[in-house]
Amino acid sequence: WIAFAACSALAGFLLARPEPDLSKSQTEDWKRTRTALLMPVYNEDPCETCAALFSMGSALAKQGLSDQFEIFIISDTKDPNLWVKEIAAVNHLKRALFGQMNVWYRRRHDNRAKKAGNVQEFITRWGGRYDFMVVLDADSLLSASTLCTLVKQMAADNKSGIIQTLPCLYRGTTLFARLQQFAGAIYGPIVARGITAWQGNDGNYWGHNAIIRVRAFAASAGLPTLGGIRPFAGDVLSHDFVEAALMRRAGWKVRMLPTLKGSWEESPPSLSDVAIRDRRWAQGNIQHIAVLHARGLRWLNRFHMITGVMGYLASPFWFALILVGIGIGIQIQFASIDYFTDEVTLFPNWPVFDSERMVKLFVLTMSLLLVPKALGLLRAFFTHSLRKPLGIIRMSLGTVVEIFFSILYAPIFMLIHCQHVFDIFRGKDAGWAKQHRHHAGTNWGQLCKQHFWHTCIGIAMLVVLYFYSPLLIVWLSPIITGLILSIPLSALSGSHLFAKWLRWLGLLSIPEEVQDIDMFKQRDAFVEKTKTAIIYINLETLIENCFLQKQHFSLVQAPPPVNKGDAPIDYLSADYKINQAASIFQAIAWMTDKEKIAVLSHRSLMGKISRIEQVQR
What is the distance between the alpha carbons of residues 41 and 552, in angstroms, rounded to a whole number? Predict the structure, then answer.
């Protein structure tokens, strides 16, 4: 598993798969296509998502491409307070892009199959309007030139089904986010080039920052509901790997453009946040074990799924290897050595510790671990777009800092992944937790609870080795140190102050922080404008303001009819509480989130609650 990353980096350093040459005659057709900038959202900050869409939409409009692109937001938001602001933010976005680009919005009333189901419903209902769709995450941002290149590449090759970009991490303000984005900028491109070299048209899809041929996706990438037992049963959580495999099975090319710039996303801000995200990813990837036997899949797509599975199963294997090594070290202390055997010899049978082979193994292992980083740094030295803004010395020092913290965080992730795998195989579902994209602060109580057993395991390893095999402490010191210090290390991962200090020193910087990029400034400015525009809008103000109600329901689709024999429980209970309440505020205080959603979905309930006689608070 370690060697795989090293081989990919070596392939990226030595090999380069040429990207298709787009002649002028090949690219004329793209001007007659229509592409949706498709953003699925789930309880996200609407100011941030709309700001990203505004910067992309306005950049495309400036290049005269309003007819080729449209913005489509597909929402699964379940928080009523966020939904009110989400619709207000979308209305603000529509006004800002009026006359420049169409903006469409739809919120599902039924959240089945999560993100994959959200995209599937879009394709079923509106996919026929578009030739292609660029699937985004809530934190995605693509430049206008990048979007144009994706459409041109897709239009030039009628067999292209998915073209994946290599998103760069950016906007990191914590230590962990800055470590991730620095590693992505320095080491990521060379590994991506290596992967592209061996996968060819049997590529993978990462679920965002990629362009998809809509009709091909609709015809070949429908996902089943997995049967069997947990953790394999239910909706396919890591849907993107499977969708890429199904597209490839149908004969469509799935490829990556690793050298295409202008594609960005954000990193989870702390170790705790990435652990929450990884829990869902781990379950989704392990589900792929049930998909591997599907007929007609190409072997490279099966290999992509196996690498996804091993991304999490490698941790229990590593932990088992450590425990076995400690066990052997302890066993030696109690072993009864037979110095004189029945064999005729002039010398006693002395136990031999093969230190030479052990050192060779250690050097080989460390070399494999560092090959991607060393080759990535070497490539960065000769890459003008990295060397000029960052400098060779700062890149080298940043690599040292990144390696130092990677070594300390690796054993913590090992145990986190072990816990994930254990929970999955005992049938515990990951759910659908909201992603935290901005770190609000360190909750020491939560960190102590999360890393208590990690610390205990580190201390236990240190005590056992101290008494039974002190030499092994030296070899295992990075693992033991990382586990014992897991609580403060986790807190440090979300530190804004330490990250700001490193940035002041010029360490862990990326070109986007040094260069002046108009899209970033435009996005940040629109975030502030949107916050100002919607700050006063909530459920209470919506109920009291007929104009805001009209704007709200202009983007709300009527709920689907209720099946015969089924009662609309949330609607009926909300209606009952409205009838019993003496004021608007009392009615709202009595309601659950689902009942508030019912009010926000039905004009009749909104009209009824608006007519309640108001009393003084």
Answer: 18
- Which amino acid is residue 450, in one-letter code? Q
Query: Helices (DSSP H) in 171-258: which residue ranges?
Result: 175-186, 188-199, 214-220, 239-249
User: Parallel, antiparallel, or unpaired for β 141-142 and 132-135?
Assistant: unpaired
**Predicted TM-score (pTM) of this structure:** 0.92
DSSP-derived secondary structure for 476-539: HHHHHHHHHTHHHHHHHHT-HHHHHHHHHTT-S--HHHHS--HHHHHHHHHHHHHHHHHTT-SH
CB–CB of 174/299 below 8 Å?
Answer: no
* Alpha carbons within 13 A on the beta-carbon side of 95: 11
Q: Distance between alpha carbon 99 and the CA centroid of its chain, in Å? A: 33
34 in Cβ contact with 70 (< 8 Å)? yes
pLDDT digits (tens, 9 = 90+) for 514-539: 888 999 999 999 999 999 999 999 99
According to DSSP, the residues that pair with 39 across neighbouring strands are 73
Residue 216's pLDDT is 97
Q: Is it the case that residue 437 has pLDDT exceeding 80?
A: no
Question: Residue 615 above 50 pLDDT?
Answer: no
SS3 per-residue string spanning 521-552? HHHHHHHHHHHHHHCCCCHHHHHHCHHHHHHH
Q: What is the mean pLDDT of residues 42-52?
A: 96
Model pLDDT, residue 334: 77
- 224 alpha-carbon distance from chain centroid: 23
How far is residue 588 CA from its own chain's centroid? 35
- For residue 269, cis peptide bond before it (omega within 30 degrees of 0): no
| pLDDT grade for 362, boundaries at 50, 70 and 90 | confident
Polymer length in residues for the chain: 617
- Positive or negative, the CA dihedral 373, 376, 380, 386 is negative
How far is residue 321 from each of residues 46, 309, 552, measured CA to CA in Å?
46, 18, 58
Query: Do 103 and 69 contact (CB within 8 A), yes or no?
Result: no
% pLDDT > 90, the chain: 76
